[in-house]
Write a structure and sequence with these properties.
Elements lengths: L9 H62 L5 H29 L5 H13 L5
Helix pairs in contact: 1-2, 1-3
Length: 128
């Protein structure tokens, strides 16, 4: 029987190291899981907002266009149709540019996990 103050053996040290390693891996996997859930929620939320905006915009543009064409049916039907086409094409271009800026401002996926892994690597001593 060993006394309580004797140092642990090689296997006990190896076991503690293994448990610490597994605990660190478990923490990182849990962090990835949380970030994946957040990204999924953000994607679903973005899709819902885009869908609602597209539906409402399509309905408004359809009825506004029909109203304008009806008002100018006898005098400037072709000019109104060309003008509406130019306006819609310009709006589509502006929306695409705004959406690209929106995507560029979004945080990088798994940024917290990558930062934690960098910190972990920084703690490991480098061989000389």
């Amino acid at each position: 029987m060993r006394s309580p103050e004797s140092p642990p053996g090689f296997l006990a040290s190896f076991r503690v190291l293994g448990e610490s390693l597994l605990a660190g891996v478990q923490d990182r996997v849990e962090l990835v899981s949380v970030e994946l859930q957040e990204e999924k929620f953000r994607l679903i939320q973005t899709f819902c907002w885009i869908s609602a905006a597209m539906f409402a915009s399509a309905m408004a543009l359809t009825f506004a266009s029909l109203t304008l064409v009806y008002l100018f049916w006898d005098t400037a039907r072709l000019a109104v149709l060309v003008g509406l086409t130019v306006v819609y094409a310009g709006a589509a271009g502006a929306i695409v540019l705004a959406f690209r800026r929106y995507l560029a401002r979004q945080p990088r996926p798994f940024a917290a996990t990558i930062a934690e892994l960098r910190e972990d690597r920084a703690c490991i001593p480098k061989p000389n």
